[in-house]
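Protein entry
_____________
===
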Amino acid sequence: MTKTAIFGATGYTGFELLRLLLSHSGARVTALSSEQYSDLPIDEALPTLRGMLPRGVSFGKMESLMEGDFEVAFLALPHTLSSAVAGRLLARGVKVVDLSADFRFRNIALYEGVYNVTHKSPELAKSAVYGLPEIYRAALKKTKLAAVPGCFPTSVILALYPLIREELIDLKGIIADCKTGVSGGGRAPALGFHYPETEGGVRPYGLPSHRHNPEMDQELSLAAGKKISITFVPHLMPMVRGMMATCYATLKPGVTAAMVEAACRKVYAKEPFVRLCPAGQLPATKNVAGSNFCDVAYSVEEKGRRVIAMSAIDNLVKGASGGAVQCFNLMNGYAENDGLRGAPVFP
């Protein structure tokens, strides 16, 4: 068994981590931190999991648990906070799976500009592995620090990666039009995510440059071997969870629909969580809700040399906590789908 801690256990991603780890064969949750709810009994702070947590789990504020008895720590903390915490844990031999943006950027100056902070552990960022197993599986098996991607980058990168890796599209003019549920804004109350403000409507946000855009550019540029800058527009949808990415690109001359499908099958044929939709079907957020699956599909207009790459994920699972558990499994020698075997919830 691997003793495991979750820092930030009462946010949405913390809840989701707990839900997934409770069905894991080798993870034993021993410590949970919450700055807001630590004074409450644990079953009151986490009522959906009442009676399901192991006895003896430590529950308290983060600082009081820093020296706790665990071997792996999930950091479900706000951006800019993980960079101050990870170093202390790594120094005493604890592996870290970070769900914030603090270690996703390979260029520290870029991170500092996007998040308007000074990075507290820039030297650690060099050793972090971007936590997208479909691309970095081998490196994740060796690392002690995984930087789990954001939900938007996960959906966009997985949709576009086969097209870029197999050199099927022009690298200029790529557009990613994404829709997300309101849980992506976190659990803290905010007017823009308030039910009366979102119900029955759709709105774009984060323009002219959402903080996930540089993360997408970074990873897609690495896949292409040259700099890419895509246009990314996120939209808020009146639903709790789910994310749909619809990406538009121009095909290179001579590229056919059969070549696009072959590229996707080549890249994702052995992936446990990427599913290519059958002919005539398109991804839908309902079809992946509550699961770690990413459903992808491609629509090709050969005459106009256009391809539409689509992906659907659950933003809290594959886009956050499920991706984190995938990384945990690779880092600790477990089956990659351990704790992630649950089927999507429908309807």
